[in-house]
Amino acid sequence: QINNQTNNQINNQTNNQINNQTNNQNKKYLILKEQNENKIQNFQIEWWSGSIQANIISKEFFEMLIKIVDQNWLLQQIRALSKPPSFTTLRLSNINSLENNKNLIINKLKQHFESNYCNTIKNLSIFDYFPNIEDSKRILDLVTIHCPGPKIIQRLESIIVVDACAGAALLRGADLFVAGVMGCSGHVKKGDRVSVYIEIGYKLRRGAVLSLYNIANESMLIFVGNGIAQLDRNDFFTKQSGYAVIFDERVFDAPPLHSILENDIYLQNLPSILVSYILDPKPGEIILDMCSAPGGKTTHIASLMNNQGRVIAFDKNEKKVQQVRQLCQKFGLSIVEIHCCDSSSILRKIENNEERISFEKETFDRVLVDPPCSGFGLRPCLGYDKYLFTEKQIKAVSLQQKKLIEVGVKLLKMRGILVYSTCTMNPKENEEIVSWILNKCKENDCEFYLELVSQEPFHYSNSSMIWQNNYEMQLNQQQLNLLQRFDPANQLLDTNGFFIAKFVKLPKVNN
């Protein structure tokens, strides 16, 4: 009896100790859970409000820019770059029978959203114009979808974390493909609802087994939304392609447009759509597109020409050339001739006997120069070293831009139109290039000059840029007013950063 009593006392003490330890562990877990949930929630609020500055620009690039533009203005643009635009714009692929076609496409989009997606996507507003631009119905092939956000939605226990590059696509409406998955909870099965986060701390190794509450202490996480896992956990890291998550709830209500009405619409940002209207190509003309890929502007030009005339397009990358060719075939555009070549070398020289494509001076009615650039205007950018340029690299990019525009001007017919555009806010690739080419054409041995001309009736954006007082601006105010600059922090338009200049080539008159 004594032994039994002793054993019972020992067992009771042991059980009490175990229960106390378990209760303490549960309390610690609940406290940690609450702390991490608050930490994550506060980070979301600070990120989307702009209180946290995205690490998207190198110190050297930043210091170069603030010698030219006001620092506060620049910081406003950087904060805007970390968020997706509140509008998604589409371009119709066929300019013919446009009015009926546009209404038909809008109805098809509405039907698709209503039958395939959650209530928030079903109720998205779709317009046949751009809501915040007066007279934007003159952009005949434009369709705009309003994508509100950020919204507060309930987060789930099971998580998937993606890299920042994939995360940018998710914020513009894409569903998640397996290539973007960095890690996830250990128990995720096909059909589970999961929360998806973007990791911008550079600390995750692909395949990591994650808990929301341990990763919150190690990484900066941006919550994207919730969806249905399309695979078991292990398949995320063994399969080469396919969907990982189909979203049913998003922080930003941008609709997925992959593989929807592929032959009828083309996803394109508003400033890029405007470029072709500003170039104003006419049926029967010969147009040069010096840097064609991915083909959006090339196919738009051909469409505005009613597929009559010639569009000569170039890109240095063979894979991209094939993609442009396939896009033209899909849209039924037969007037585009796409070549794999550096277009800065296509000006024909008498002494040149190489067997490569080249053209005589003054061959083209209109020329588009949309060259490679720093891309300091693309959004959303989530701090994945997108703009970590050095001043030396910017000089190299600017040099290539100058080569392209110089050749383009020589190939342009007298009284022809040249449009220069970039997807960057960097003045060294924009205003300074404009100033350089205007001065270049003033040289004594030049038989022509370039003149900046109006972009009306498609001039919709007046820049808010504030220049540094000690920056030596080479353009006067009248010339600056003829340029079109889209600033991401412009809440009315809320577009990517973009720049457009339009020139006419004129003969010099001897006195």
Structural account:
The strands form three sheets. Strands 12, 13, 14, 15, 16, 17, 18 and 19 form an eight-stranded mixed sheet that branches. The protein has a seven-stranded mixed sheet with strand order 5-10-9-7-4-6-8. A four-stranded antiparallel sheet has the order 2-3-1-11, with helices on one face. The chain has helices at 2-49, 59-65, 71-81, 98-116, 119-122, 164-171, 212-215, 233-238, 270-279, 296-304, 318-330, 391-411, 431-440, 477-482; strands at residues 87-92, 126-127, 142-146, 159-162, 176-177, 181-184, 193-199, 208-209, 221-229, 243-250, 265-267, 286-289, 310-315, 336-340, 364-369, 412-422, 448-452, 484-486, 498-507. The protein is of the alpha/beta class. It contains 14 helices and 19 strands. Helix 9 crosses helix 10 (296-304). The model has no long low-confidence stretch (mean pLDDT 85).
Count of β-strands: 19
The biggest beta sheet is recorded as: 8 strands, mixed
Low-confidence stretches: none
Proportion of beta-strand residues = 15-25%
Oligomer: single chain
Q: Averaged pLDDT, please?
A: 85
Please, how many helices?
14
- What does the overall shape look like? globular
Distance between the termini: 128 Å
Structural class: alpha/beta
Radius of gyration: 28 Å
- Estimated helix fraction: 25-40%
